[in-house]
Amino acid sequence: MQARTTELVSTIPSAPFDDLDLDRAEGEEEWERRVMALAATRIAAERARLERLGIIDANGDLVSRELPPDMLPDSDATVETG
Questions:
Q1: pTM, rounded to two decimals
Q2: What is the domain partition of the chain in residue ranges?
């Protein structure tokens, strides 16, 4: 799982700003472009992950609104950890 997480992080663009002059309109516009590109990439990656897990369908709708069996009121599962 760690390898997949590391792989995913390495494919996500970064949004550095140390090379920008944020006091100028051009620098501020470039910063906003970088942040929006970063956000779009992360949203797409998360959507794909949720689809792979079967939580949402291709339209982004929930596949089920039912609770998993261990979360139902009559479940023998416990929230105690020790």
A1: 0.59
A2: 2-71
